[in-house]
Structure formats: C-alpha cells, structure tokens
Specification:
This protein is an alpha+beta fold and 345 residues long. 38% of the residues lie in helices and 21% in strands. The protein is globular and about 70 Å long.
C-alpha cells in the first residue's frame, strides 16, 4: 500500500482519472498493512465478480472496477495474439477476491492498496510482461492513488499533459532499500468509514476552493522537486518539513471547500501538536526535525521518523494516547488504557 507525503487532490479528467497535480508517496512494507487479492479465470464463470472483505460488491458497468478488468483483459489479448498457444483467458470471466487487513475507506489509502493489488493479481494471472509503469496507467483508472502503489519505495505520479492520459503514470523515485532508515508509524485514530469519499471530496474542492488554484499551479510543482531531491539525498529535515507542510495545505484546501470537509478530528490535531512540540525541543537544542506527521483523507496519522527516534515517539504517543486494546510493537513496548485508537509500526 502507499501512503502519501505529497498529495493528489483534484482531477482534471474524472473519467480517465487525470490529476490536477503530480504527487508522491511512500509505499509501506506489506508485512503490516496490505490488501491480499486473488483472481481466477474460468470458462464456466458467467460474469466478472468481486468479493471485498468477504462481501460481494457490484461491478458497475462502465465503473472503475469494470474499466480496470477490461484494460487488463486487453493486455492479455495482446499476449494471446502474439502466442496463439496461450489459453484464451481474455475471453473468460474472472472472479476476484480481496481482503484488506486494515480499515477500508477510513483514510488509510485502501483504494490505492486495493486497486494496485487487483492489477498485480490480474497481471500475474495473465502472465503479462507489462512494466509497473504500464500497469500504473490501468491502476490509475481504478483509483488515482493506486498508480503509485505498484513499485515499492518512493514513487511519483507524474500528472502528464496528454488528454488521453497516456503520460499520466507513476515512476519510482527510489527503491525502499535506498532509505531503509525511514520508518512509518500509523496511528489509527478511528477506523470508521469516512463521511466524504476521496472521489467526491476532491471533486467538490475542484469546484469550489479558491485556494486550490495556487496550490496546484505554484506550490506543488516547486515542492515536488524539493521532496524528490530530499529523498535522493536522504535529507530527513527537508523531507519532514515539506511532508508536514503539504499535509497541512491539503487539509486547508479541504476546509476551503464548500461545504467544508473536515478529515482530521481533535485527536488528529493533538498528535500534530505533540509532534510539533517534539520537533521544537530538538531544534531548540540545536538538533534537527525528528519526526513528520502526515494525514490522508481521514483522521489517522502517519508519523515518519528515522529508526533511532521511533522508540521515543512510540513512548510519547502511548503516554498521551493510551491504547484501548493494549499494544506491543517491534520494540517490545506495551501500552494499555481506555482511549480508542491503535498504533501500528
Ligand atoms: P481510502 O482512504 O481508504 O482510500 P477511498 O474513499 O479513496 O478511501 O476508497 C475506498 C474504496 O476503495 C472502497 O469503498 C472500495 O470501493 C475501494 N477498495 C478498497 N479496498 C479495496 C480492495 N482491496 N479491492 C478493491 N477495491 C477496494
Ligand atoms: C488524500 O486515489 O482515493 O489520499 O482517484 O477518486 O479514487 P480516487 O481518489 P483517491 O484519492 C487519494 C487522495 C489522498 C492523497 C493521495 O493519495 O495522494
Ligand atoms: Co483512496
């Protein structure tokens, strides 16, 4: 799955899912949060079907899921045309079964993880020779953010300029191994389904926000360069500063939407205050930024930090936000208490 530190929020083409700005995300290791998707083609299947988290979902004609399946079958047909002995899987219906081991539609990028897993699963079923960037063109049409989640590591979605979307694809800025020292701490503030989906929220922002224009024309192009360079140079200070600025600006344009969209809640804002204070103390003592928060379209926090700071950060979070279910992390830390919320590293 991918979690973002430079945000996509706005489409210039809602059907093809072409964004108003480029974006960048960090792909989380699949050991913790993941979508597991299996697919099967069979001549006996009467139609394409999808089960998500154990429940059958309708595949709407002309909808995003149908588009992804159709496009994957098109790539399979190309393989079959070149190698006539290959079974004609492109002519069979598919059954797809997917499960997220983290909250769906709660602002933890389930659509990114889910559509990336879907495209990967069909690419494996169809033995496609396609590169991740080619597959990203298809994942993008399922959910924009999904195009960045096929590579691992640090991935940019280049907005492109062609009306057919053929240059609106993802590229890997750096693999995970490039900067293994960076860790992500996910603080699940609420696993409820969000009130405003990303799709409808960003559409309303495009239609009503006056701040968005400045963001997409002036702010993002410059910051994309800065953050890519920071990643390549493993410059955590710059990475952290820009990540927090971008999260804040994204939530500012959400608030500038009419009617306004509030994705963060009081707990989200308290976590911002805590990270800000933690960084302030470090900088006041002549040090650098030690952690960066970022919030997707939901109340849940992602905290990026170099490994050496993680233990301290987990202790701070668990101290100020006691864990409902108890919590044991990779460092053997344990928290318990009454508040709702979960921390995952
Ligand atoms: P999120 O913040 O979780 O990405 P979105 O509103 O963007 O929330 O998208 C949620 C939608 O993504 C779900 O309602 C579902 O349609 C789709 N989705 C989530 N997980 C999967 C999955 N594993 N496979 C296919 N589609 C998925
Ligand atoms: C806030 O990709 O979920 O997570 O393209 O309509 O499916 P659709 O929206 P989606 O939007 C993600 C928005 C975001 C930021 C990001 O992922 O860059
Ligand atoms: Co999403």
């Amino acid at each position: 799955m991918g979690l973002v530190d430079y945000r996509y929020w706005g489409k210039r083409d809602t059907k093809l899912i072409l964004p108003t700005n480029s974006s960048l995300s960090v792909t989380l290791d699949q050991d913790h949060l993941r979508s597991t998707t299996t697919s099967r083609a069979d001549p006996k299947f009467e139609k394409d079907r999808l089960w998500l988290n154990g429940k059958e979902e309708d595949i709407k004609e002309g909808g995003r899921m149908a588009t992804c399946i159709r496009e994957m079958k098109r790539l399979r047909r190309e393989v079959e045309e070149k190698s006539p002995n290959e079974p004609k899987l492109s002519e069979m219906n598919v059954h797809i079964c997917s499960h997220n081991n983290f909250p769906t539609a709660a602002g933890l990028a389930s659509s990114a993880s889910g559509f990336a897993a879907l495209v990967s699963s069909l690419a494996a079923l169809y033995s496609l020779p396609a590169s991740p960037s080619t597959l990203s063109l298809i994942a993008r049409q399922g959910s924009g953010s999904a195009c960045r989640s096929l590579f691992g590591g640090f991935v940019a979605w280049e907005m492109g300029s062609k009306p057919d979307g053929s240059d609106s694809l993802a590229i890997q800025v750096a693999p995970r191994e490039h900067w293994p020292d960076i860790h992500a701490l996910i603080c699940v503030v609420s696993d409820d389904k969000k009130g405003t989906s990303s799709t409808s929220g960003m559409q309303r922002t495009v239609e009503t926000s006056t701040l968005l224009e400045k963001r997409i024309k002036v702010v993002v192009p410059e910051r994309m360069k800065v953050i890519s360079k920071a990643i390549l140079e493993k410059d955590f200070d710059t990475f952290a500063r820009v990540t927090m600025q971008d999260s804040n600006q994204f939530h500012a344009v959400a608030l500038d939407t009419d009617p306004p969209i509030f994705y963060m809640n009081d707990v989200s804002r308290s976590i911002i205050a805590l990270v800000t204070e933690y960084n302030r103390v470090s900088v006041a003592a002549g040090g650098k930024l030690k952690a960066a928060y970022t919030y997707d379209a939901g109340p849940n926090a992602v905290i990026y930090a170099p490994k050496e700071n993680l233990k301290e950060i987990v202790e701070l979070i668990v101290h100020y936000f006691p864990q409902a279910d108890g919590f044991k992390d990779a460092f053997g830390l344990f928290g318990s208490g009454g508040a709702k919320g979960k921390v995952v590293e």
